[in-house]
Amino acid sequence: MKSSRLRRLLARSLFLTAAAVLAATGTANAQPASLMAKVVVIGVSGLTWSDVKASPELTALVDQSNVGSITVKTAGPHTCPIDGWLTISAGTRAWGSVADLPCGDLPAVTNGKVADWQTYIDRQAEHHTGAPIGRLGQAGYPMCGFGPGAAIALAHTDGSVVNWQPDFDAARLASNDCGDAVIDAGALPLREGRAEARNRVADLVAQARAAGGWVLLVGVSQEVANAHQEPLVAMQLPPDNGPRWLTSDSTRRPGLIQLTDITATILRGRTAAEVDPAGVAKAGPLDGNEIHSTGDVHTDADAVIENRLDTNQRFEQPRPMLVAVSMTILAAELLAIAWFWITRSPRSRRTLVFTLLTQGGFFIAVFLSTATVWWRWPAPAFSLYCVVLGISVVLAGVAQVVLKRYAFLGIALTAYVILLVDGVLGTPLQFGSMFTDGPVIGGRFYGFGNSTFATLAVAALVTAGWAAQKLIDKSRAQAALAVLAIGGAAIVVDGRPGWGTDFGGIIALTPAVLLMAWLTWRGSISLRALIGVGLTGVLAVSAVAYLDYLRPPDQRSHFGTFVARLLDGDVSDVLIRKLQMAVQFFTGPSGWAMLVAVVLCMLATVLPEKVPSESYRRFYTSLPMIRPTLLALSTCGLVGMLLNDAGVALPAIMAGFAVPLLVAHLVTAEQPATVSPESHLVQES
């Protein structure tokens, strides 16, 4: 009777989890159509907010514009002008340049065709971008272009160009024959002549405004490697209701748009042309969304420019400081290990535990640091270093002093609660954090990235294991339901569109939670039950994705978009690109080292008797919930490694959070102390 009741409760929990994940989130309103009778896009390679600050003419435009920053990440490793203009042509990220070579000149237009057009088509197939270059030009309604970049953006699928001129013509732009327009204002020179080029851009904006319509001034590329790590300038003139911040539904962040939003804005509700991209049967949907404005009115150009420059710091500093903080903590751990190995003194033991807990605290500090607004402090890079290291140390110290033998649990529970709250609030702590470089490289503008998911997965499974241990002597069924509740909350927050929006994450976490719940309930699992748990996880995730697919296309998250591509037979390039991303870690020794470490950690959870540590072997068998928790962690890491584009990095990050907490717990448990059997059982849980 209890068995059938628990099965019904498990099924009901899965249903409620899927329903909660699919709860819809609202989308922002598009620009009124009356304001967009004509869209004139002026693209400038290398236009930064430092240029706006240095140019009185460009500064004067700020209070007359909706403003923001634009990330110009394309399909390749860096964004040359050819990459940027091809991306606007396709409406999805394209690859135009040659990796490891400097950016070259844009191709010429000869006899009404872009030179070497077939080369760029072949390049999309070579790199599996699935980018249907020529889609914008094939749209079927009048557009005119000026300059070599505009020829690329507006070329048809065969490379032919119509209604195009090599140089800007204000009279032509103002004529009735010219509907929407794309203007290539050239590239800002890296050194000499940059001031004159900025003046030409400001003059071009004035002439375009005189033609009427809606002018969008944007940076489209930069001519140095990895330059897409700096967001460029985006301005929309005139503002629709006072100068505000630009945004789009593809970023969901005030003051931030992406390059593919330009194509969606030019098309603005029209059906994109049916173009067969190289290498796949059917073009996927546009990657971007129509640009609109949001937030409060701004009227101080200097304050707006400083805000944008501060934002650049927010995006640029986390990655190098991540390495700096990590190396600092690692150095402290190595010194502490050496001291403890030599002396075995109580002080060296406490110091070792403290450094290990500091590494655990680091996985929380990377998010909490965002709340300090460090990028507005003097010396932002050093400020971020101190803030993250300081929060890590404080968390470790509080956990060790206040919670003592519970320190590992305090760190895990804190991470679990903070990430759940942050997810429900729309992930404000993720934005520009060390674990989320998406706003810079265009990888993820909202929701949980791979590093965040890895942190949440470890925190959720450890917390669930502890809660189940408190209940298991009373009722295995109640303990299993506790696992489902705690793990299910993490799945909902991680996967719900508008919250974590992490399709790959719920694929990995769902089977881990189900396996843990089953082992908690039954104590062991047969091959038949294991297959059933796996299929249940697949069905639950598939149901979430399919229900998201049933929503209107402009409201789908990437869950539903993936299903749409799958049903259209356009998923092969996506899968190949993700596989390429996963295997790229094995181009050097670090990737293989991570794989070896991850495999050893997983084997330790399956074959504990082979681990050359007596304290670990005792720990593994000391309580019923230790084995299910460790097996669930390995399952999540293994599934994530096999099915996620992060590959081996995902379980490696999980291990980077979980292993120090485990070792800290084992070292703490070994220290001489007089404790009762009951308190020993509590701390072991």
Radius of gyration, whole Å = 27 Å
Kindly report the spatial arrangement of strands forming the biggest sheet. Answer: 6-5-7-1-8-9-2-11
Mean residue pLDDT: 85
Q: Tell me roughly what share of residues is in helical segments.
A: 55-70%
The count of strands amounts to 12
Please report which band the strand proportion falls in: under 5%, 5-15%, 15-25%, 25-35%, 35-45% or over 45%: 5-15%
Largest sheet: 8 strands, mixed
Give the overall shape, derived from the CA principal axes: elongated
Cα distance spanning the termini: 29 Å
Task: Give the helix/strand class.
Answer: alpha/beta
Given as residue ranges, the uncertain stretches (5+ residues, pLDDT < 50) are 1-36, 673-685
Q: Please give the count of helices.
A: 26
Any overview of this molecule?
This protein is an alpha/beta fold. It has helices at residues 2-21, 49-54, 56-62, 81-90, 117-126, 148-154, 170-174, 194-210, 260-267, 301-316, 318-343, 346-368, 380-403, 407-424, 438-441, 450-472, 476-495, 503-522, 527-549, 558-567, 572-583, 589-606, 614-622, 626-643, 649-670, 677-684; strands at residues 39-45, 66-71, 109-110, 113-114, 143-146, 164-165, 180-187, 214-221, 232-237, 245-248, 256-258, 291-294. Strand 3 and strand 4 form a beta hairpin. The chain is elongated, with a radius of gyration of 27 Å. The model is unreliable at 1-36 and 673-685 (pLDDT under 50).
